[in-house]
Specification:
about 140 residues, alpha/beta, Nucleotidyltransferase, domain 5, 2 domains, 5-stranded mixed beta sheet
């Protein structure tokens, strides 16, 4: 075998040991973008509440006004405390004549009277559809 041919053969075997990871990186980024785009983002009230259970349930409209009531009775919207008195002004400002549902996420240990007050204030602000958020699956 000629000397030059052997040198060419050795170089070829060394370079074939490398793995091209560019296609793998492309696939990983495409999957990452796919999962980011298909993830459903639901705007929460900004407070942690333990919802009561209910036998029936209805899907939450993506474009809704979420109001949270903690176990201590504090009323929150968008992560800040607004109190019962602030519900009417906040809901009235956000409705702007649209038929946007208002969803009350009340902790199961919150007083029922507080939930009813928030519900009344939302109705007085002009909300036609007011719902109380629960966990599905019965009691």
């Amino acid at each position: 075998m000629p000397k030059g041919f052997k040198r060419f053969q050795d170089q070829q075997s060394e370079s074939s040991g490398e793995i091209n990871i560019s296609p793998l990186i492309d696939v990983v980024f495409i999957l990452l973008i796919f999962f980011i785009v298909t993830t459903v983002f639901v705007d929460e009230t900004g407070v942690e509440v333990e919802k009561p259970r209910a036998a029936s349930q209805q899907e939450l409209d993506r474009n809704s006004i979420l109001i949270g009531i903690t176990a201590e009775g504090s009323v929150f919207y968008g992560g800040r405390e607004i109190g019962v008195g602030g519900v009417r002004s906040v809901v009235g400002r956000l409705l702007k004549g649209d038929d946007v549902p208002v969803v009350i996420q009340a902790d199961k240990r919150a007083e029922t009277q507080k939930t009813v007050q928030v519900l009344d204030e939302a109705k007085l602000a002009g909300a036609a559809r007011v719902f109380v958020s629960t966990l599905g699956g019965g009691s």
